[in-house]
Amino acid sequence: MYFYRLIKPFKAITFDLDDTLYDNKPVIDLAEKNLVKFLIQSHPNLKNFNHKYYKFCKSKLLLNNPCIYYDINFWRKLSIKLSLRIFKINSIETNIIAKKAMKIANFWRNKVFISENTHRILNKLSKKFPLIAITNGDLDINKCNLNKYFLKIFRSGKDGYPKPFSDMYDLSAKKLKLSPHHILHVGDSLETDVFGSIRYGMQSCWVNFKKKKIISDLSAKTLPHFEISDLKYLMNFI
């Protein structure tokens, strides 16, 4: 645990989700693997479809409309539909297959592993502080047993621009009815979490599981108030 700024008393905590409360990459990798597998089996035209085609469609959509990054679920849906159109599937079948494919993708996307230790920490913190989740992702906390800890969840797209933009930080402060400096934000990203929350006026905790050196991290635009390598250190504030 390293301190970079003076910590003042805080009355609430906001949490990032992806790569802060669980390892997100294997979840997304598995979700996309099962999505592609479903698409291949869904139509004869797709027998030669593979993950490279899907990644191409995602990249093409992002290149043509960078703002699509702000809504992950919508981006996924359009990527599926573009994949189907490329393989000459008509619009009626595209809509039917895309609807089923989204159910598959969302099912696997929400298969996150939350450790017992993380559950224990969130449970104890939630009894001391009101907690709000702020995410640029699309996890459904109701499907992974995290909802019981959080007063509210804000998602980019539905609830405004993604972090580091201030939209969801502002919504959180208004929901909590607190000044930003009375809120601690906890997250793994030096840009979206640390820079975004500090720019809004909150206090910031950088979750550094990989124990990177902040001085050599090019994504660092400012220093957090403190850094932890394990969520257990948050228990010091109870």
Please describe what this structure looks like.
It is built from 7 helices and 7 strands. It has 238 residues and is an alpha/beta fold. It has a 7-stranded mixed beta sheet, covered by helices on one side. α1 (25-42) runs antiparallel to α4 (91-109), α2 (51-64) packs across α3 and α3 packs across α4. Keywords: Hydrolase, Magnesium, Metal-binding. This is YigB protein. One of its GO terms (biological process) is riboflavin biosynthetic process.
Low-confidence runs:
none
Instruction: Please identify the structural class as seen in this structure.
Output: alpha/beta
CATH architect. name of the largest domain: 3-Layer(aba) Sandwich
Share of residues in strands? 5-15%
Main β-sheet, spatial strand arrangement:
1-7-6-5-2-3-4
Mean pLDDT: 95
How helix-rich are the residues, as a percent range?
Answer: 40-55%
What does the overall shape look like? elongated
Number of helices: 7
Order of helices and strands: EEHHHHHEEHEHEE
Query: What Rg do the Cα atoms give?
Result: 20 Å
Query: Main beta sheet: strand number and arrangement?
Result: 7 strands, mixed
For this structure, what is the CATH homologous superfamily of the largest domain?
HAD superfamily/HAD-like
* CATH topology-level fold name of the largest domain: Rossmann fold
Per CATH, the class of the largest domain reads: Alpha Beta
Strand element count? 7
Keywords: Hydrolase, Magnesium, Metal-binding
GO molecular function: hydrolase activity; metal ion binding
Protein name: YigB protein
InterPro entries: HAD-like_hydrolase (IPR051400), HAD-like_sf (IPR036412), HAD-SF_hydro_IA (IPR006439), HAD_sf (IPR023214)
